[in-house]
Specification:
The chain is of the alpha/beta class. It has helices at residues 47-56, 79-89, 101-113, 138-148; strands at 16-19, 30-34, 66-70, 95-98, 125-129, 154-159, 162-168.
Length: 171
């Protein structure tokens, strides 16, 4: 005789696959290298002192870190200046990008999402988890949607018990 008041977890017994973008969040420290510190009077970059700085600076402080290179001053900075910093920092850092911390976060997720085996989601019902303790940028959700829609039977957003339908393959 079965208990009529028995609670059955239908989510746990469903065929839904929950994909949590938090699992793809790179834990490394995020830093900005601001070329503003190398400008004279916040206006100009002098090549000789800058090259001396590039040669003498201890770039090992960026070991294992994620670095965004930018210039927050309203100055014209030659492209080669960013390239020189990148050439030194990239020997130590996990990731180096031009731009803001938002650009860096996007690049980190882009790198992580490229490593997902999309085929394991073929014809699956997938829920992309919506809440996380780490800041997951909208870019990551959009990119994951782009990657999954060609292979999944359905794609949802949220929590398995309360989802928002995103995509359903035509039968």
């Amino acid at each position: 005789m079965s208990d009529q008041n028995e609670i059955i977890n239908r989510v746990a017994s469903s065929s839904l696959i929950t994909l949590d973008l938090e699992e793809y969040y790179h834990q490394g420290e995020r830093l900005v290298y601001d070329l503003r510190q190398n400008l004279v009077d916040d206006l100009i970059l002098k090549e000789k002192p800058f090259r001396e700085f590039i040669s003498s600076n201890d770039w090992s402080v960026y070991t294992g870190k994620n670095v965004a290179i930018q210039c927050t001053a309203d100055a014209i900075v030659p492209t080669w200046a960013y390239m020189l910093v990148a050439s030194r920092v990239s020997s130590y850092a996990h990731m180096v990008v031009y731009g803001s911390l938002d650009n860096l976060e996007q690049a980190l997720f882009q790198q992580a999402l490229q490593n997902i085996n999309i085929e394991r989601f073929r014809n699956a019902k997938v829920v992309i988890k919506g809440c996380s303790k780490y800041p997951v940028p909208p870019f990551a959700y959009v990119e994951l949607t782009r990657l999954l829609t060609p292979v999944v039977s359905s794609l949802m957003y949220g929590e398995p018990c309360s989802t928002v339908p995103i995509y359903k393959k035509n039968k």
